Protein: Putative 4-hydroxy-4-methyl-2-oxoglutarate aldolase
Amino acid sequence: METLGFRILTRESKVSPAMVQKFENVVTPHVSDNMNRMFSGGSGLSAYYQKGKLLGAALTIKTRPGDNLMVHKAIDLAEHGDVLVVDAGGDTTNAIVGEIMLELSKKKGISGFVINGAIRDSAAFRNGDFPVYAKGVTHRGPYKDGPGEINVPVSIDGMVIHPGDLILGDEDGVVAIPQALTADILDQVKSQEKKEWETFQAIENGSVDRSWIDATLKNKGCEWK
Ligand SMILES: O=C([O-])CC(=O)C(=O)O
Ligand SMILES: [Mg+2]
Structure:
């Protein structure tokens, strides 16, 4: 019998380390554009680290708001390169992770956290290079009783994250790329990078084509006095 809401599942597959590596120099706006700007971890998440980018395979946790029993379990189950993606319901009353969990995670080679909830011991996060996104900060600690689930689809601000998806986070936020689509999206991102590079060249040498703006205004019926 399934114990819905309190269960640990096995992640069937995850994006390969080789594919993850290919996204090392990719930025979130380019990924987002090639997902039709429809998916994002939301403006409610802020970065709590100094520099670098968040990149890895999602290990998902859905937890009771304010309770981190399942997050502790996930740290023990995590593999090198995993990103812990925790849906704690967006509640910031009690912190979901702190400095001890941060140190445990670094030691295990976990790549970062996305917490739809709060963190504490925030100086340790803010002053470090371990990529963490969270909704807020509170000194109030977590309960450790459950329930919760590991390796189930979770959603943060409407973005669904499946176990094994590729997670990318930078100065502009967090995006989850469905595992099966990573290669396609990478191809599209590469063509966008090329086009943008050509635009920068054209700006530099004064040949940039701006005719699309007037064409669009005309097409949309804009009145221009
Ligand atoms: O007590 C906890 O589980 C959270 C915490 O503050 C830490 O990891 O340092
Ligand atoms: Mg602590």
Observations:
- DSSP finds seven helices and twelve strands in the chain.
- The pocket of oxaloacetate ion (ligand 1) is lined by residues 68, 97-101, 120-121, 141-142 (CB under 6 Å).
- The first strand starts at residue 6 and ends at 8.
